[in-house]
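Bumping with the actual sequence this time:
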Amino acid sequence: MADNNNEKDPKKVTSASDTSKKDASKEENSANSDTPKDAEKATTDAQKEAHSHSAKEETSDKPAPKKHKKRAMVVTIVVVVLVVAGVGFYQWHNTPQFCAAFCHNMDQYLATYEEPQNTQGVDKYGNEVSNTNAMMATLHRHNETTGKSEIRCMDCHHAIVGEQVSEGTEWISGNYYDPLDERVGDDLTKWWGEPGGNFCVNENCHAYLRDGNGGINYDRLEASTVWMDFNPHSQHHGDIQMACTECHKGHRASVYMCTGCHDDIDVPDGWVTYQENQEIMANSGTQLKGTQISESMVR
């Protein structure tokens, strides 16, 4: 019995041997079958990596895309916006509403300019005016004696850079008067570098009164009103030569200065006498400028 148990079964040995061979064969076949695929895959991956690396090198060799086109577009847009804004500001600057938009002491000047013509109104100091045509700013706004259908502020008050810088500085610093002192004659044109008469008599307004040098021809001025019963432009006072703006006021009733001597003449509708003018200015709280009538002038 012992010998039989110890003896190996030849069939089992053969079967085990065959199984080992089959397993070895499978492993070999598996190894043999996997190796080409892996190699092929590795080759493909290597080619892809090489191609990718080559593509990166080619890309890096190319110059970076230029941004100047985008920058030029931005600059163009900015320039266009600035130009449009500048034109718009310039147009607004030439409107009567511009000054009052920044300076509150211009409100009353704009108000008198915009009053209806040939009716009762109020001057820049709040005084009643029996006829607004006595205020030259109102009278000249719409007229039929010039080529323009509407006379605006800047047509008379020229936009001089130096003057506007000075006014802007005074506005920022608060160094200004309210109400403003009234300007007459040369005060109105000092920034132009021209005589005060040119404020009213120039190439655009009352040019028929100009002399050969661009000033006022007083003989023509006298002749222009010779039809009146009393000629206010008569030159019988050779030593008195007043500026136009001493009588013709822009934003308050004009003054018939002749009544300082002549008390028997008719005053135009809405105008005030010399004495009334003295009272108006005394109550205005502003400095009185212009010719002062004295007894020595009365003849």
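The tokens above came from a reply further down the thread. The chain has eleven helices and four strands.
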